[in-house]
């Protein structure tokens, strides 16, 4: 028996043309968005082409890097690592209560975890450089405001990731602890903490990777670390020194990323 | 068999644990030794109070000023920088992604070199890129656009490459069997599979770029960051308050829109 050929039905055809219409509207919307942002930012390809020779000059001046400057770069680079470490530590400690309070399977009260999550979202919308600029105004120049800014910023990240991991844990041990009549602190310590700890440590390491990158630029607002040196050297048009700083930053970032990645692989 | 239920930890792992503690302790001693902890200004308390007051009584008049430089224009500028930067990187990263994907480009050296390029671009801080672009095209939003566009290639290229590596190669082979040329193979077998992933990653990067665009102004690369840093430097805390509020509202709205689109796509 021959199967009858099926043609697209009328409704299918109209849904196809509807879809095509939708694609056209999306494309139109994107083009408009693109044109508007070009106009708003006053971008022009001509500027870019005119600036191209500048860029070429700049790149030529950056090579070869000024290796003699390396000795000056090392101490602020170490400062940067210190800031990242301490900032991450502060963030990691502050994140623990926030993560537990916003996990819906630890504290089942909506009135509790919704506001806490809202605060976390709020914190994560503020870029760390702005936090650093505000802390510089409070504490004065130096690495201390940078450490606090990184601490608050990474608290937001670690707390969010940790509470999401907490909500995914096996409920068995939780019920077992409830069944034996554990109080809340015992309940958390023996059923939640052992399950979440590997994730938590991995998120802390991840935050450390982000913080090393962030710490490298906090100096631009006066919050310590290598960032101040970008300002100084670029201001004096010493591009060979700039490239030394860039190479040094890249090496440190890559080294910390590598160590942290290896540790995280071992953990999970 | 008394201890069957309580497996005693072998001694070696306890040693390992202690050595980890000691290493951590030494790291912290080193880290704390380099930080001047007595650096508090006496006025810190006063200033914090002024800041908190200012943040809770934002300068609403700044939202719209007829003669120029106001919050709305700053935010629109920031948004435009983020949009344009994302557009630029979403287009530029495609060739890099194909270069770095190990199932479509031929040879380990080729893919590894592509991956290295991308991670190099990723580790280069966007603010430093912006500083350099300011030297090239002068201060303003355009330098910010270029910095974001170039920096985002690193991350988008990596994510796109991973997306390409995960495709089903069946359709490619089928097209090859029908005698399609490489461009037809790419267009009909690869592109339809990767488009949803590409769009979703691009939107995700757009969310990140919006946050970055709001600080680019601190170094003079356009957007809301410039009035913000001026307000902070001139201790105009109620203006800082309204600008921060504006940034938070804008970022939250865009995040909501973007994540709802992403949910519908993937």
UniProtKB/TrEMBL annotation, chain B:
It comes from the Bacteria. GO terms for molecular function: ABC-type phosphonate transporter activity. The keyword Transcription does not apply. The keyword Glycoprotein does not apply. Its main location: other. One of its GO terms (cellular component) is cell envelope. It is a multi-pass membrane protein. InterPro entries: MetI-like (IPR000515), MetI-like_sf (IPR035906), PhnE/PtxC (IPR005769). Keywords: Membrane, Transmembrane, Transmembrane helix, Transport. Residues 75-258 form the ABC transmembrane type-1 domain. The chain crosses the membrane at residues 15-33, 79-101, 127-150, 185-204, 213-232, 238-257. It is found in: Cell envelope; Cell membrane; Membrane. Belongs to the binding-protein-dependent transport system permease family. NCBIfam families: PhnE. This is Phosphate ABC transporter permease.
């Amino acid at each position: 028996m021959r199967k009858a050929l099926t043609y697209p039905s009328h409704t299918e055809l109209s849904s196809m043309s509807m879809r095509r219409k939708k694609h056209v509207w999306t494309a139109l919307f994107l083009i408009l968005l693109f044109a508007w942002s070009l106009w708003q930012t006053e971008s022009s390809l001509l500027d870019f082409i005119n600036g191209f020779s500048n860029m070429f000059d700049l790149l030529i001046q950056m090579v070869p890097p000024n290796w003699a400057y390396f000795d000056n770069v090392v101490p602020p680079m170490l400062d940067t690592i210190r800031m990242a470490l301490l900032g991450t530590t502060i963030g990691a400690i502050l994140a623990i209560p926030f993560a537990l309070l916003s996990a819906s399977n630890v504290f089942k009260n909506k009135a509790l975890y919704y506001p806490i999550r809202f605060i976390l979202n709020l914190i994560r919308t503020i870029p760390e450089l702005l936090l650093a600029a505000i802390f510089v105004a409070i504490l004065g120049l130096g690495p201390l405001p940078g450490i606090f800014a990184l601490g608050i910023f990474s608290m937001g990240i670690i707390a969010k990731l940790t509470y999401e991991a907490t909500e995914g844990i096996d409920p068995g041990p939780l019920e077992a602890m409830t069944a034996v009549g554990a109080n809340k602190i015992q309940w958390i310590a023996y059923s939640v903490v052992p399950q979440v700890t590997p994730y938590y440590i991995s998120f802390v390491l991840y935050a450390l990777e982000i913080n090393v990158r962030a710490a490298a630029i906090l100096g631009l607002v006066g919050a310590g670390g290598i960032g101040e040196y970008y300002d100084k050297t670029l201001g004096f048009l010493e591009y060979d020194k700039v490239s030394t700083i860039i190479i040094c930053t890249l090496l440190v970032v890559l080294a910390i990323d590598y160590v942290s990645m290896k540790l995280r692989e071992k953990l999970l | 068999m008394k201890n069957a239920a309580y497996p005693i930890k072998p001694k070696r792992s306890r040693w390992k644990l202690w050595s980890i503690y000691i290493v951590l302790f030494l790291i912290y001693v080193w880290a704390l030794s380099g930080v001047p902890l007595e650096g508090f200004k006496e006025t810190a308390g006063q200033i914090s109070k002024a800041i908190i007051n200012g943040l809770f009584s934002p300068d609403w008049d700044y939202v719209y000023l007829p003669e120029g430089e106001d919050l709305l224009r700053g935010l629109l500028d920031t948004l435009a920088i983020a949009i344009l930067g994302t557009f630029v990187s979403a287009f530029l990263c495609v060739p890099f992604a194909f270069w770095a994907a190990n199932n479509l480009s031929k040879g380990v050296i080729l893919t590894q070199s592509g991956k290295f390029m991308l991670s190099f671009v990723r580790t280069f801080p966007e603010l430093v890129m912006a500083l350099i672009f300011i030297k090239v095209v002068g201060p303003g939003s355009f330098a910010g656009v270029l910095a974001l566009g170039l920096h985002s290639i690193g991350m988008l290229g990596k994510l796109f490459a991973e997306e390409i590596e995960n495709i089903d190669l069946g359709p490619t082979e089928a097209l090859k069997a029908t005698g399609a040329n490489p461009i037809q193979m790419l267009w009909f077998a690869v592109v339809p599979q990767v488009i949803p992933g590409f769009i979703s990653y691009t939107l995700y990067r757009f969310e990140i770029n919006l946050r970055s665009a709001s600080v680019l102004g601190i170094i003079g690369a356009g957007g809301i960051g410039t009035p913000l840093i001026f307000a902070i430097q001139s201790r105009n805390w109620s203006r800082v308050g309204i600008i921060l509020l504006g940034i938070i509202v804008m970022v939250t709205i865009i995040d909501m829109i973007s994540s709802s689109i992403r949910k519908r796509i993937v």
